[in-house]
């Protein structure tokens, strides 16, 4: 029973990690409609952005206009406890235009 629960938790965690793409409609300089897609998080690959682009544009396909990615480091130091906590946030995004 414990093993089954672990498998279910693992599957749910995997699903939640792999479906983290957010798309927003945007207008491009020429006035046409584009889509800005972000897939943030260190556990999420750039492929999640491209999969979302495929969902948005379907069989028409899309043109990749821009691709960005960066790692943002943050740190917290708690003087009273003498504890340092550092982390990184991985930010990735693409800008597309459907064909």
What does this structure look like?
It is a single chain. With 99 residues, this protein is α+β, with helices and mostly antiparallel strands. The protein has one domain: 2-Layer Sandwich (Translation Initiation Factor IF3). Helix content is 28%, strand content 45%. The protein has 2 helices and 4 strands, in the order H-E-E-H-E-E. It has a 4-stranded antiparallel sheet with strand order 1-2-4-3, covered by helices on one side. A hairpin with a 5-residue loop joins strand 1 and strand 2. It starts with a helix and ends with a strand. The relative contact order is 0.22.
Structural classification: alpha+beta
Number of H- or I-type helical stretches: 2
Q: Indicate the percent of residues in helices.
A: 25-40%
Give the termini separation.
50 Å
Number of individual domains: 1
CATH second-level architecture: 2-Layer Sandwich
Widest sheet, order of strands: 1-2-4-3
Task: Please identify the oligomeric state.
Answer: single chain
User: CATH topology, anyone?
Assistant: Translation Initiation Factor IF3
State which percent range the strand residues make up: over 45%
State the shape.
Answer: globular
CATH class: Alpha Beta
Largest sheet: 4 strands, antiparallel
Number-wise, the strands total: 4
Low-confidence stretches: 11-18
What does the radius of gyration come to? 18 Å
What is the ordering of alpha helices and beta strands? HEEHEE
Mean pLDDT: 76
């Amino acid at each position: 029973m414990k093993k089954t629960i672990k498998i279910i938790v693992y599957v749910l965690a995997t699903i939640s990690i792999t479906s983290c793409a957010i798309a927003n409609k945007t207008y491009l300089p020429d006035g046409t409609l584009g889509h800005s897609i972000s897939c943030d998080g260190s556990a999420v690959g750039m492929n999640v952005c491209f999969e979302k682009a495929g969902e948005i544009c379907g069989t028409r396909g899309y043109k990749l206009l821009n691709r960005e990615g960066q790692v943002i480091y943050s740190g917290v130091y708690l003087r009273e406890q003498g504890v340092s906590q550092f982390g990184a946030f991985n930010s990735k995004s693409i800008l597309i235009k459907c064909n």
